[in-house]
Structure formats: structure tokens, C-alpha cells
């Protein structure tokens, strides 16, 4: 099993979200030591531009035209990211809530990889269809407040809904979310929420370990 871990917090060892994802990875490793984990740490690296030549290429692809050969070198950076994404069987996304949604580095990554002909296409009626099939995604988020079902802030949670929507759009419908909340209240409440999220994440790791046969 090949897992791609996409990290979208700049807080490294101080990140609460990452603590939960690490619990998931440790449990998975204990059950499936043969799993390959690749990490893309979005705040620690430069992503390819999503403008200029690459924007021109995107619009050409959208209407079924080939990429301008002069733009191929620039496009190759986007393709490298896409190939890495498509090579994975399972995705783990580590993303705190930022302004009710995802951190900008994750949005940038999504804008870079969600490309026509690679992650989605169009059917004979011109309706977009996802091209990424048979994959599983686990999104681990943490947030300062509480957006759980029934809480007064629930409708403000544009993070889980967006992640479910954009990755569902490309075909990833085996989608699971673990949300640690509320983080920015008392230390006791925060610690309890992290513990509960770790348990939920480990339970998803157990399920994943059982779902995949040895590679
Ligand atoms: C730029 C920024 C925006 C944030 N926006 C929100 C928000 O809209 N709602 C919320 O509940 N918490 C918000 N927070 C708090 C974080 O979601 C929370 O502290 C989270 O646990 C941080 O995760 P980390 O420790 O993995 O970085 C924000 C934090 C930052 C840095």
C-alpha cells in the first residue's frame, strides 16, 4: 500500500493536527509495516506556479488542445506533483482549519494538481467526471472552535465540506474525516479532544490495514 501524506500546517512539531496524523501512521505501521509512506510537506517546499505558462496549458487541456511545446518544461513540474498523487493508493491530509476553510498552501496544491485530463475529464454530455478511482482518503483536521454537528458554529465549517467536495469531484469517494475540536479553549478540553481524535484516527488506520491486502 502506498500512502501519500500531505501536510498543510507550518507548525511542525507544535502542530496538534500532526500529532493525530502521526498516531494514525504509527498504528498503520504497526499493522502494515510494508506500507510505503511518502510525505509532501506543503509549507516546507515551493510548489509550481499556477499562472503564466501553466495557466495557458490548463486552458488548452480544458478544450482538448495539446500543450504548447515551449510550455512543456514548466508543465513538467505540475505533472510531477500529479504523478506522485496518482501513484498513491491512500491519502492522509493533515490540515488545521484556517478561516473556516483550508490553509492556503493546501488550496495552492489543489489548484496545481486538479487538472483536466489528469484528475478529471468530461463525458459525452460535457459533464465533468472524476478520473481518480479506487483510492481512500483520510483527512485529519483540528480547529480552535467547535464545529461539530449540532453546535452553533456547525454551518461555518467550510473545511470538511470543501475537502469532501473537491476530492469527491475527482473521484475519491472513500473519504473519511477526523476533526479535533475545540483546540483553543482550556488545555484540559484540548487534550481530551486530541485524545478522542487520536482514537478515531487509529480506528481508521485499523480499518485501512484490514482493507488492503499485502502489496
Ligand atoms: C491563520 C489561522 C486561521 C485560523 N482560523 C481558524 C478558524 O477559522 N476557526 C477556528 O476554529 N480556528 C482557527 N484557527 C485555529 C487553528 O485551527 C487551531 O489552532 C488548530 O488546532 C491549529 O492546528 P495546528 O496545531 O496543527 O497548526 C486558525 C489558526 C490560524 C493560524
What does this structure look like?
By secondary structure, this protein is an alpha/beta fold. It has one domain (2-211): Flavodoxin domain (Rossmann fold), CATH 3.40.50.360. It is built from six helices and seven strands, in the order E-H-E-H-H-E-H-E-E-E-H-E-H. It has helices spanning 16-31, 52-62, 72-87, 104-113, 158-169, 187-211; strands at 2-7, 36-41, 90-94, 120-122, 128-130, 136-142, 174-180. Helix 1 (16-31) runs parallel beside helix 6. It is globular. The termini are close together. The mean pLDDT is 96.
Short structural description:
The chain contains six helices and seven strands, in the order E-H-E-H-H-E-H-E-E-E-H-E-H. It has helices at 16-31, 52-62, 72-87, 104-113, 158-169, 187-211, and strands at 2-7, 36-41, 90-94, 120-122, 128-130, 136-142, 174-180. Helix 1 runs parallel beside helix 6 (187-211).
CATH class: Alpha Beta
How many domains comprise the coordinates? 1
- The oligomeric state of the chains shown is single chain
Globally, the shape reads: globular
The biggest sheet, with number of strands, parallel, antiparallel or mixed sense and barrel status, is:
5 strands, parallel
Work out the helix count: 6
Which descriptors apply to this entry?
single chain, 215 residues, alpha/beta, Rossmann fold, 5-stranded parallel β-sheet, two-stranded antiparallel ribbon, 7 strands, binds flavin mononucleotide
Amino acid at each position: 500500500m502506498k500512502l501519500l501524506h500531505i501536510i498543510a500546517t507550518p507548525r511542525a512539531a507544535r502542530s496538534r493536527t500532526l500529532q493525530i496524523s502521526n498516531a494514525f501512521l504509527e498504528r498503520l505501521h504497526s499493522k502494515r509495516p510494508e506500507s510505503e509512506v511518502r510525505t509532501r510537506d506543503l509549507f516546507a517546499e515551493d510548489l509550481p506556479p499556477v499562472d503564466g505558462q501553466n495557466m495557458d496549458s490548463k486552458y488548452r487541456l480544458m478544450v482538448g488542445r495539446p500543450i504548447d511545446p515551449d510550455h512543456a518544461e514548466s508543465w513538467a513540474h505540475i505533472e510531477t506533483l500529479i504523478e506522485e498523487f496518482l501513484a498513491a493508493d491512500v491519502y492522509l491530509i493533515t490540515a488545521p482549519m484556517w478561516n473556516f476553510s483550508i490553509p492556503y498552501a493546501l488550496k495552492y496544491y489543489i489548484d496545481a494538481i486538479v487538472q483536466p485530463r489528469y484528475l478529471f475529464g468530461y463525458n459525452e454530455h460535457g459533464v465533468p467526471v472524476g478520473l481518480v478511482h479506487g483510492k481512500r482518503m483520510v483527512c485529519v483536521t483540528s480547529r480552535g472552535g467547535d464545529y461539530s454537528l449540532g453546535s452553533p458554529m456547525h454551518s461555518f465549517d467550510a473545511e470538511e465540506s470543501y475537502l469532501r467536495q473537491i476530492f469527491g469531484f475527482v473521484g475519491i469517494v472513500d473519504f473519511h474525516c477526523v476533526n479535533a475540536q475545540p483546540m483553543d479553549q482550556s488545555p484540559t478540553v484540548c487534550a481530551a479532544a486530541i485524545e478522542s481524535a487520536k482514537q478515531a484516527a487509529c480506528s481508521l488506520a485499523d480499518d485501512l490495514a484490514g482493507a488492503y491486502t499485502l502489496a
